[in-house]
Write a structure and sequence with these properties.
- This protein is of the alpha+beta class.
- It has five helices and ten strands.
- Strands 1, 2, 3, 4, 5, 6, 7, 8, 9 and 10 form a ten-stranded mixed β-sheet that branches.
- Helix 1 packs across helix 2 and helix 3 packs across helix 4.
- The longest helix has 14 residues.
- It is globular.
- About 35% of the residues are buried.
Length: about 250
């Protein structure tokens, strides 16, 4: 058996997330259909992150195994051909050793959350960013975000549907980029709780629209109560940007 790693780009609006679900269109399901047409048998793929419905990706990673040998470019071209007209693209493929696992071998995951801050309706960014019409105090958001960096019990940023055994996570960095009305927030960590990034984004938005002292973020963290944090930001603004491996 030969094992391959693929890097995947997708626009997640019309999919029910990454993971296979019965009778629903998912990213994993569509790629497995395409691979199975190539291999003429059922092929399972294993993703690095189970993105939710509506979440997008620049660099999702998955692995799979094939019995028959194919040239690398043949596999990539075939998957992309059979994926048409889905908004999913295999942008890179490589052969990996048998120990590699897309989910468990990763070193860090990097997500970007996008906000468009203006009053006028979205056109190009519709379903691809969070439309916030109230003016944002970005400087206050940046200051508040620094309190999230480090190792903490992130119970306040944990969704009710989270199945993780522990809320203890380490955020390596949070960085902001601005361009006209667009704000991109990049979160980097080994792993995240279910909906953690979207809750952090929703909470940071409150620091941008309300007069809240940045240090109050520490009280939210230490309170270990979901009710203390902000709303869960919509999935349309979240992008899986990059996954790094050892």
């Amino acid at each position: 058996m030969l094992k391959y790693k693929i890097v995947i780009e997708y626009e997640g609006t019309n999919y029910h997330g990454w993971q296979n679900q019965k009778d629903l269109k998912t990213i994993q399901g569509e790629i497995e259909k395409a691979l199975s047409k190539l291999a003429q048998k059922n092929i399972n793929i294993y993703g690095a992150s189970r993105t939710d419905a509506g979440v997008h990706a620049y660099g999702q990673v998955a692995h799979f195994q094939l019995e028959k040998y194919y040239e690398i470019h043949e596999i990539q071209n075939a998957i992309n051909y059979y994926l048409k007209p889905e908004k999913i693209s295999i942008i890179k493929i490589e052969k990996v050793d048998k120990e590699f696992h897309a989910r468990f071998s990763n070193k860090t995951k990097q997500y970007i959350y996008k906000i468009i801050n203006r009053k006028s309706p979205l056109t190009l960014y519709k379903d691809r960013a969070w439309h916030v019409m109230t003016p944002l105090n970005i400087a206050n958001m940046i200051k508040a975000s620094q309190y999230l960096i480090g190792t903490f019990d992130f119970t306040s940023f944990r969704s009710a549907g989270c199945q993780s055994h522990s809320a203890l996570k380490t955020i390596n960095s949070i960085k902001f980029e601005q361009g006209d009305n667009e704000i991109s927030i990049t979160f980097d960590a080994k792993s995240f709780l279910y909906n953690q990034i979207r809750i952090m984004a929703g909470t940071l938005k409150d620091f941008g629209t309300k007069e809240i002292c940045p240090s109050y973020m520490s009280k939210i963290i230490n309170g270990k109560n979901r009710k203390l944090a902000g709303e869960t930001a919509p999935s349309c603004g979240l992008y899986l940007n990059k996954i790094s491996y050892y």
